[in-house]
Amino acid sequence: MGEADETQFGLSWFRPKSLQVLSNFIPFMIILSSNALLQGAIVNGLVSVSISSIEKRFKLTSTQSGIFAATYDVFVTIMLIPLALYATKVNKVKCIGLGMMIVGIGSILVIIPEYTAGPYSVGEARKDVCVTGGPDKKCTEGSSDSFSAHRELLLLLLSQAFVGIGASPLFTYGITCLDEFDSHKRTGRNLALYMIASTVGPALAFVGCGFMLRLWGDWRTSPADMGIDGAADPRFIGMWWIGFVLCGVIALFTAFPLLMFPKRLKDTGLRKANDVHRTDASLDKDFSDHKYEFFKIILMLLKNKTCMCVILMQTIEAMLMNGYITFIPKLLETLLGFSSGNASLITGGVVVPVGIVASYIGGRIAKVFENRFKPSMYFVMTFGILAAGCSSCLLIRCESLNVFGVNVPSADLPKFGALETCSENCHCDPLFNPVCSEESKLTFLSPCHAGCADSPDIKFGAQNWTNCGCSKNTIVKKGYCDASCQKQIYQFIIIFIALSFCIFITAPVLQSSSLRVVNHKHRDHFTCFGWLWMRILGSIPGAIVFGYIIDVNCMYWQKDCVSQKCQYYNASNLGWAFFIFTIAVKLTGGVLLFMAAYFYKESDKPSGKESCRTLDTDASESVKMSYEKNLPTGLSPQTMVY
C-alpha cells in the first residue's frame, strides 16, 4: 500500500476525494469529542438519573441496582488488558469507532427489558397519613424473586456489559491518539477540550432525562386507569428509557466516521515536526522485536518509580472523585437541607461550568509548560494542596434539626407541645415524606408520624395537612423545618466552586505531562495499565468506601419488604468523615507527585525534534515535505496549524 493510501479517509474502495479533508486533525478532534459527549451522557448522566426509576419499574433491590451500575466498570476493566496487548497491531481510531457502535447497541438494548417485562403494574397506593384500627402490613415472601425479575435484570446487565466493552477504547486509545496526531505542546489543550465534551454530556443528560421522567413511561397503560394522579405519586414511572434509545441511535451515527479514519492523518507530520523527546531515561527502551514484548513493557512500568508514583496518585484520586461524583448530591442534602432535586441542580450548576472553564485553563497552562514533567508535577501538587484546604467547605452545615423518631424520642414530645401518645395508634407505611410543625420547630418523618388524620381530599404529595395530633397547632407543612442557614449556603457554594476549580485545572496538565514520561511506543500500554489500577483499586472501591462512610453515619433507616434506605444522617460526623478522607488523599497524592518528580530523570538523548521517533511510521518527514509542497504560494506551514 502506498503512502497516500495510508492517510486516506474511507472504507475499502470507497475513498472519494471530497472526503479527504476529513483526514486531518481538526475533523478528527470534533468527531472524537462528540463521541466522548455521548459516552458521558449515557454512562455518567442517564444511568445516574434513571436508577430509581429502573428499581421501581423492574422491582429491583438497591443491591441489584448497584450491580447494574457497577457492571460498566467491571467490563471496562476486563477490556483494558487486550487493549494494551494489541495497541500496536490495530488501527486505534477504527477500534474506537467499533467500540462506540457497541456502546450505541448496548444503550438501545435497555428497551428490551422494558418490552419483555409487560405492562407496568402497581399495588395499592400506600398512605402517608395516620390509619388506625388495622394491623401493620406484612411482607409477602418471594415478592422480588420471580423468574421475570431475574430475566429483566440479566437483560439490563447485558446492556451495561455492551456499553462497558464499547467505551473502553474511547478513554484509552482516544487519549493516546490525541497525543499521537498532534504536537505534544498542544496535548494539554486537546485533552482539555476532550474532557469538556465528556463533562457537557452528563449535564445535557440530566436536563433531558429530568424532563422525560415527568412523562408517563409505559405506552401500554395509562396512569389515570391505575389511580395515579401525577409524578408526585410514588408509583409513577417516568419515560426513563427514551434517553438511552436516543443516545444509542445518535452514537451509531457519530461512530461511523471513526471507522473510516486511517492509522495516520495527513497533517500529522507537519503538526509533530517540533516535538521534543522527554522520556524518562529508564523507560526509553524498545521491545518491538521481543517475543514477550507486552510482559516486558508491563514489568518495566512496574519497576519504574516515577511511573508507579504517578499511577498510584491517579488511583487514589480516582477513588476520591468517584465517591464525590456518586455522593456529593446526597452530602448537600444532609449538610444544607437541600431537596434531592435542588442538590443535583446545585452540583450540576457548579461542577459543569467550573469544570469547563478550569479544564480549558489547565490545557493552556500545559501548553505553557511545554509538557516539562517536573514543573507540571509541582503545579499539580500546589493545586492539590489548595483543594485540600478548600475541602473545608464540607465542615459547613446548617443547624441540626429536631426530628421526632430520630433525635427526639417520644418522651420529649411534651417539650414541643404534644402528647407522648399522639401517634401511638397510627399504622405508618415505610414512606419517608418529612413534614414540619412550624410553631414547635419539630420535623416528623411523615404526616403519619405527625398523627395527621386521613381525609378524602388529601392526596399523596399534598403541601399541607391539618388535624395532626402531634403538632402544637394541628397543622404541618411539607418538607423539613427551616434551618435558617442562608449564610452557610453561600459560604459553601463559594468554597465548593474553588474546590471544583482546583480539581479540574490539574487534569489536563497531569495527563499530558504523564504521557511524556514513557516512550511513544508504550503510550497505550501506560494508559491502559494506569486505567487498570484506577478501576480496580480506585473507582470501584471508591464508591464502596464512600458508601460505607455514609451508611455508618445513618440515623434513620427506612425499611420495606425488599430493601432498606437511609433517609437521615448525622451531618456533623458525615462532613468530618468526608473532610478527613479528602485531606488524606490530597496529601498522599502530593507526596506521590513529589516522589515522581524527584525520581524522574530525562533521557540523555538529544532534546531536539523527535522526527520519526514520534510517529508509528518512518514516513513522517516525507509526509511533511509533500504536505508543504502542496501548500498555496505565500502560506507557511505554521499558519495552517490549528
Notable features of this structure?
two-stranded antiparallel ribbon, 642 residues, 54% helix, mainly alpha, disordered C terminus, four-stranded antiparallel beta sheet
Would you mind describing this structure in some detail?
With 642 residues, the chain is mainly alpha-helical. 54% of the residues lie in helices and 4% in strands. It contains 18 helices and six strands. The chain has helices at residues 3-6, 25-58, 62-85, 92-108, 111-116, 147-167, 173-181, 187-212, 242-255, 268-271, 293-303, 305-336, 340-369, 373-390, 486-515, 523-552, 571-599, 620-629; strands at residues 435-437, 442-444, 464-465, 476-478, 554-559, 564-569. The chain has a four-stranded antiparallel beta sheet, with no helix packed on it. A hairpin with a 4-residue loop joins β5 (554-559) and β6. α3 packs parallel to α6 (147-167) and α3 packs antiparallel against α16. The model is unreliable at 141-145 and 606-642 (pLDDT under 50).
